[in-house]
Amino acid sequence: MCIAWPMRLIEILPDNHAMADLDGVMRRISLRLLENPQVGDYVLVHAGYAIEKVDPLKADEQLRIMQELKNGIIRED
User: Fold this and answer.
1) What is the dihedral of CA 76, 74, 48, 31, to 10 degrees?
2) β partners of residue 8
3) Degrees (nearest 5) of the Cα angle 34, 50, 28?
4) Is 28:36 a contact under the CB 8 Å cutoff?
5) For the residues of 16-58, what is the DSSP string, one character each?
6) For the CA atoms of the chain, what is the radius of gyration?
7) How far is 63 from 35, CA to CA, in rounded Å?
8) CA–CA–CA angle 18, 24, 30 (5° rounding)
């Protein structure tokens, strides 16, 4: 199973790269698969590549769910 994590772009770097943040952890990622990424965008990151832009509300929801899974708490709505 593969998981792509939502991360927020904090700096655009040369050569189609960026610095992205996930809970204070910074990663250098490739932007080669995206069109027109901007600082502040949320992107799904898999294997060091931003593979898709994500709506900020959707990113927040995905991060909340992943945190619940990490904590062993699964809500039944």
Assistant:
1) 30
2) 21, 42
3) 120
4) no
5) TEEEEEETTEEEEEE-TT-SS--TT-EEEEETTEEEEEE-HHH
6) 13
7) 23
8) 20
Find tokens 């204070």 and name the residue.
24
Count of C-beta atoms within a 10 Å radius of residue 43: 24
**What would the pLDDT profile of 13-52 be if each residue is shown by its tens digit?**
999 999 999 989 999 999 999 999 999 999 999 999 999 9
Distance, in Å, from the CA atom of 20 to the CA atom of 70, rounded to the nearest integer, reads 21
φ and ψ at residue 43, rounded to 5 degrees: -135, 150
Please give the model's pTM, rounded to 2 decimal places: 0.83
